[in-house]
Amino acid sequence: MSELLKQIISNSIVIALFTSAIAYFFHKRTERQNAVLKREFEQLSSKDNSHFEWRKNTVELLGQVYIHLNRLGLGFQNKYSKIPEYDSYYEDEIIFKSNQHIRDLLINNGHFLPPELLGEASKLVEHFDVWLTKYNQIRLIDKDTKTTQIYVGPDGFRFPENAEKLFKEKYVEMFNDLHK
């Protein structure tokens, strides 16, 4: 019986060593696979987070542009185009500030614009640049208060209505997509 016991013990030790070696091998392999999966997940998560942040910032930018374009449109439609004489407060507070704000937003945050809006953004910036330059010349340099309104359309820089339409549509589309 002692021989049988020795045989059982030696076989048990050999089996335990092999089992330990196999378990160690599988454990290490599992750790490596988990590390690879974790890295891949973090990379995908990082890309997704970056894309989400870009979309969020884009919606914020487009929302501000949307509001100021509406402000300009309503201001022009309801009062500015109908005033009988120069109204410095209205022009300075509504028209000038919104024109300048939209232009500055587009210039300073162009990296958040979807590529399909870049051309339209350039048209808006050009229009506002020309309007602001003309405003500066008429109101600040020439001190002209006889000119009732400042228009740059007759100078070849009509307001880009298609740009306004595309910006507003893109805002609604991206806002709805972001808040699904």
Describe what you observe in this structure.
The chain crosses the membrane at residues 6-26. Keywords: Membrane, Transmembrane, Transmembrane helix. By secondary structure, this protein is an all-alpha fold. It has one domain (51-178). The protein has 4 helices and no strands. The chain has helices at residues 2-78, 88-108, 118-141, 161-178. α1 (2-78) runs antiparallel to α2 (88-108). The N and C termini lie far apart (76 Å). 17% of the residues are buried.
Brief characterization of the structure:
The protein has helices spanning 2-78, 88-108, 118-141, 161-178. With 180 residues, the protein is an all-alpha fold.
List strands and helices in order, with pairings.
Blueprint: H1 2-78, H2 88-108, H3 118-141, H4 161-178
Helix pairs in contact: 1-2, 1-4, 2-3, 3-4
Keywords: Membrane, Transmembrane, Transmembrane helix
Transmembrane segments: 6-26
